[in-house]
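Title: Prediction job returns without error message
Component: structure pipeline
Severity: low
Priority: P3
Assignee: unassigned

Description:
Job completed but the reporter wants confirmation the result is attached to the right record. Sequence as submitted:
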Amino acid sequence: MGEGKHFEIAGSRLRILSATCGINSKTHKPEVSLSKKAFAVIQDRLRLPDYFLTNIPRDHLAFATPFSSNTGKVQLHGLIFKLAFYRPKFYQVSISYYPELNLTYGLVLARNPCDVTVPLLSLLETYESKPDLAVHPLLLPIAAIGREIDRTRRRIHRWDKDVDELEEVMGQHEYEGRPLGNPLEMDFTSKTRKLNYLSKRVGVDILHLGYVKFSLENVESWSKSSICGGKESDGVSEPICHAMKERTTMMKEDCRSLLLFAEYEEKRMKILIQAVYQFMAQKDARVNIELALNSAAIAKASKEDSAIMRQIAIETKRDSSAMKTIALLGMLFLPGTFVAV
């Protein structure tokens, strides 16, 4: 693991430090790409809670946890937002906000910075054109949560496209201009496997959106109690708080809309799974009917063959009787013929 990196967003009061994180293969404990001394200094400076590192492998899909510190005259309000560690693009972000200085320090831990830190920092730069949001202490967690909402939206739209294709293959739609397949000719095993996979992924996204929505509620509560609820700092004015409130409200509405969309896709998949089982039963019934007809035809042919064999046996018996008669006549007339000669 390499050392951490420092970033600043133009026009904001946010200072960001990024580092990689993982689980030590020997101790099975979380570790970061910082020396113990460097991390101890950062933890003391940002007043990070003792559970900051142990929070990394927790199983929450997405979760926001507030923390605070009040040492003498120095007050600090903090917030941690993280994904589940088992996800390939895991990350954990934290902010430490000093009201007196109107300064926010952010720490981004990611398993793979190229997949998380770089896109997240690029997203933060887009807020430079939104000065009210750029100077708000919640800029980093809000950007991270917004990124998760956008990624989830793209996934759900991809599941929607996959379900559309399955409907076409299974002939389960009435839209003009779209292919309409024969459901009895499809590969039931592969389609069932595909539907089960999509159903699982949509279920995970529904759970993920629920956690994101819950995280937004925690972020909103943190903002009200730490910034806009009591004595405001010089830098976080009412217009800035109002702009962030509008942003969080819009993001919550996005979550609700995506939840409805995901639940709709889940229902579509359940209907298609039932249709697959129905068509499997129909195909099995057709096969059984064909087998029964073939068996009846074979039985009829066997019966006809038996009648022919019986007729052959009768004719053979008649031939045998005729040969016997000829033999007797030969025995009677041949000796007389010999004497006459």
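Comment from assignee: result matches the submitted record. The longest strand covers residues 14-23.
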